[in-house]
Amino acid sequence: MPTFRWGAQLLVLLALAGACTRKTVSFNSRPDQAQAIAAADTLTHTADSLRGRPSLSTARRVAMGKAEVRAAKEKEKEAQRKPSKRKKIFLGERIKRGFAKSGGKGRNQAIEVFYYLKYFQQPNLQAPARYYYDPKKHKIFKAAAGELDPSAKILHGPYKKLQNNKVLETGFYALGVKHLRWERYDRNGTLLSKTHYEMGFPRDANITYFDAGRTQLKEVVPYVNGKLEGDYASYTATGQREWTGQFENGRRVGVWTNFWAVKKNFRHYEYQYPESGYDPEVEVPELLKEFTRNGVEVYDKEKNIDKRGEPEPSPTAPGRVPPARGHVLPKRAQAR
């Protein structure tokens, strides 16, 4: 009887051991196929081993020629090379960056940072003032009349003037004329003036025309907050310039130029006014230069030249100086 009990217990233990064994179950294959796949799946093969040990890579080093080495180095340099910079474009035109220095050295030196057209375009001849950069003289010039030489670098893009790392003036140029907002500061960073331009013409300027279609300019009187400020220009009925100059703080400043009516853009007289609109006002300006109808200089104050009494004909009537104030005040100024 005891022998039978021990035999029964042994059978129960064997049955439990068989039930705990893990088996691979597949719903798409038969048990014999799963066993064959499991037997063939090994982590180590003879081809993937090196001297009987597993290897993480089956790559083999191959001796490379000089040409291949050179090509590999060039490819590596090309991958490390920075991408090319984007082309500088302002208002749809390709531009280049420039610098100009003026004044003394150190803190007194003024630096201008600007952009100019990569390809020359003639500015608007009717604009009161056009600006360009002369690379030979390393200076920005202001042209009042006449076509510009194709060698001139027409200003186009942002502009900034600094002195001792402090901004004195900022603005934008468009095809050689002032555009958008322009601001001027003193050395302490205090805003002195703010002017808005629309392709060379002050936004608040009083502009008159000879024709009803507003195509033939007669006069441009610049105003800022009801006060004369900016570039002034007047024209004849034939479209030629008559006067160009500049106002500041309601007064004429700098050089004012009168042109011959019979010759296109030929200067007649140049008058000197105070350099600043905050200096005492001058009623009668000083004559600087005088020219004949053919453009011959007969008087120059700085060069001490005076040929006005010589046979070369000179105008009998002196040049007419424009009024100190505009003929017609803008509506904003009249309202005040």
TrEMBL record:
Instruction: Tell me what this protein is called.
Output: Antitoxin component YwqK of YwqJK toxin-antitoxin module
Q: Which residues cross the membrane?
A: none
The keyword GTP-binding is annotated on this UniProt entry = no
| Renumbered residue ranges of the record's region Disordered | 299-336
- Basic and acidic residues bias spans: 299-311
Give the domain of life.
Bacteria
Keyword annotations from UniProtKB, A to Z: Signal
Q: What is the lineage of its organism?
A: Bacteria, Pseudomonadati, Bacteroidota, Cytophagia, Cytophagales
Report if keyword Cell wall biogenesis/degradation is assigned: no
Q: Where is the signal peptide?
A: 1-17
